[in-house]
Predict the structure.
Amino acid sequence: MNKVLGNKKSIAVFVLPAFVIYAVFALFPIVYNLYISLFETDLMSGMKFVGLKNYLSLLTDQTFIHAFKNNILLVIGSLIAHMPLAIFFANAIFKKIKGAAFFQSVFFLPSVICGVAVGLTWTFIYNGNYGLLNAFLRVIGLGSLEQVWLSDKNLALFCIMIVVMWQYVGYHMIIQLAAMRNIDAALYEAASIDGASAWQQFTNITFPMIKSILKIDAVLIITGSLKYYDLVAVMTGGGPNHATEVMSTYMYYQAFNILKYGYACAIGVVLMLLCICSVGISNKVFQTEDN
Amino acid sequence: MKRKASDQIWTAVKYVLMITFAVMCLYPLFWLFLASFKTNQELYTNTWGLPASWSLTNYINAIIKGNILRYFVNSVIIAISAVIITAILATMASYAITRMRWKLSKTAYNVFLLGMMIPVYALIIPLFSIFKGMGILNTYLAVIIPQIAVGLPMSIFIICGFMEGIPGDLEEAAIIDGCSIYKCFISIILPISKSSIVTVAVVQFINVWNDLLLPRIFLTDSNMMTLPVGLTNFQAMYSTDYVGEIAAVIITIIPTILVYIALHKQIMEGMVAGAVKG
């Protein structure tokens, strides 16, 4: 048995193709990225070693700091906007309201649609001239609130957050719903025999039982918010005047618009560290809770 | 049992919120669909109503002027190749990791999983430089290869999770009967694991089909662009032909919606499985 299942040659045949592609095109580039981030380069006319200068410049680059702040706002905004709504919808569907299957499929639908198409759809909705939102405000008599939504530098980021919510609440709902469906139904039977109200059942059974998934979900929201690209790139392109710039769009701008590849690589490193940190911190939190 | 008034109010609130959000999810898409038949003029004057005529002019414009058909074909080629290769490689690697006996199997698994944490932004510039050196910028390969590399960790995670649960007896009996490892893989494990492989394929398809960043960087020649890049291109070139752009958006999302209607169960399962790596 071990001769067949432990045969080195056949193991290599099975694992190596995947591993080579993964190592060459995913692991090696991480190291290479660190390396390029220490240089000033346009990738054509040679590279000039500058040490940590790119990282130090990031600290004083107002646009980067602004982009970083926008990412943090997105993280906070998404946590506030997604979590409660997703729990609410998941619980309603879990408790089998009429049309549960329909609601589940409809709420999840936006998260499978291409981000560019979603972004464009909402640029049409927000459009100042023919947009759906302004037309809707006129219908309900709030015409005075009409705006050219995405051109207002104070409103644009908020408008993007709404779209992020529209697209992803259903996704987080499905994750939480899956956790709820793993809860032993006997718990609820016992609780309702004891006369526990729906609210008591939620706070005493459902919520504690899905707590660990909620933490995973929070990590997903955080890393997701750090990585947003499509919607911002399509809806505002980081504008007006860098107001809605996030780290990913700023990195793209530095690399492919003004060819400062070394600097862009440094932004890439920062993004990677932030993602790893948020996963790492949450793992620490899980472990201490489990013990 | 008599229900309390507060319970009834609560139920009503619940339905109102659910229905409002459902309308919010569907109506924009429906509005967009109607708008795709309108003229630019109508878009301004007739926000809510049906189009004056169901003419296909916008779609024809999107296809001829906007080159949408070309982008569509590019998207299909890239998505299908990336999905098939990822599924095959991930299934093979998962088989060796979960079913075969070697010291480093656990290590290999963990190294693959590491990839789920790495944002693609840490890879794009090195890949750009590597692909430039290889001379494959503006070829399908430049997007297919990184999509495979980035898709493997989650695919291996999902398939391994499934394969671990298959009991060993079947395989052992087959091997005692003189079955080779390859035959074992193809005729025993593969058919049993079909559902997890389909899940991986569907999730990978959606990810690759929707992705903007990689094709935007690696495919700058307008004949090679995928639909998402093509859409941004259309937006930049014909910024006043709103209805043409709307038709192009509809063309982009229709395949996704069809796939979703046919396979929504697998899609939801897969996206949850890939997310909850706990």
Notes: The two ends of chain B are 42 Å apart (CA to CA). Residues 5-45 of chain B form one domain.
